[in-house]
Amino acid sequence: MKWREPITLTVRTHSPVVIGTGEKCNSLGFVVDDGKVLVVDERKFIKALAQEGLTEGLRSWLEGQLRQNRRPNLREFLSEKIEAQKRTEILQASVAYVLPLVSPRQRMSQFNLCIKTPNHCPYIPGSELKGAIRTAVLVGTLRGDYLDLLANALQSEDIRQLINEIERLKKDARLERELRRKQSMLSRKLRDLWQTTEWQLIRSGSKDAHNDLFRGISISDSEPLPTNALRIYAAKRLNMSRDLIVFTEAIAPNNETKVTLSIARPDRWLQKIGLTDKAGWLDWTKLAQALYEHANAVLEFIAQKFPQIKQKAQWLKQQNNPQEPLVCLGWGQGFLSVTMTEPLLRRNSQAYETLRQAMAQVIRQYGRTKQNNFPKTIWAALDGNGQPSDLFGWVKLVGR
Questions:
Q1: What is the residue range of 57's domain?
Q2: How far apart are CA 118 and CA 144, in angstroms?
């Protein structure tokens, strides 16, 4: 496989970007002070306590908190057990990094961590960008006969029958085992259906990953951004009957980094895997066009569906263009990140409704969704007044 000249892409953040690790920092790992979050290095903290002979005091305090079924809080320990001057010295010796808290009015007991280097500098993994480009290409190719085949398969008798059986089984608690078996069957059918469709689109029907079009596309991890590019945001799920708010580290808007995009030449390797008809996709201009079209469709849907953040969605759409497309990365996309969603919604509303019903039976968070109101919710970042103000994950890709 021979490669074209690498392309340097500048990645500009237009909204908070969360590439999570799946880990959280709990209330023993940070202190909030004057709108800033002081994140503590555990080893440095224990060392600082040991130097002051306070480790036994921490242990006994923790035991007391647990006996009272209270959630231990680092601020409370420092306030209750350590005098003011020593408290300041211990914190100064223990802090790993400090981040602004964008929504200080919200009470925070923990926050999600984003991916960072060992010295706490955030970056965007190349795999995250490659996955977003792959999604845009799949959406761009999921048209015509391919989309009709997917729609017909979703409305097949066996899927409809499984949906009806699961609805019936849910009414009788004694049939829990059979319910789980049927849910597993339906989940597997949905997964297999999409996987088969994806293989048809960019693997010429093959299961073998060596026959994948995206073997010919490589993206580096981004250059690390400085730690001060990070903020902690409160995120709220819109249109919920009760407030659901979480906190997360995120790369703030108006930051830049760079990645390197390498695209293979469409020579013999493409012929060997039977994808010569997809050779046109091995070109940044066409990839950028696919990203542009997909971003437009998603942002248009968000603007129509969620009036609370309509203005931001419209602004983002204005920033989108075929030469410098927007792409949504990381956490916060919800059901809109599912590749088949938007094309099905445009092409076949009945098949889209069947998909909703199926997912409602196998994924708990979709269990109460309703026809013509799906997806019902989306994550939004809150501003300093606790109001929804931003979407998550949107960046612009600028090539040179």
A1: 39-96
A2: 47
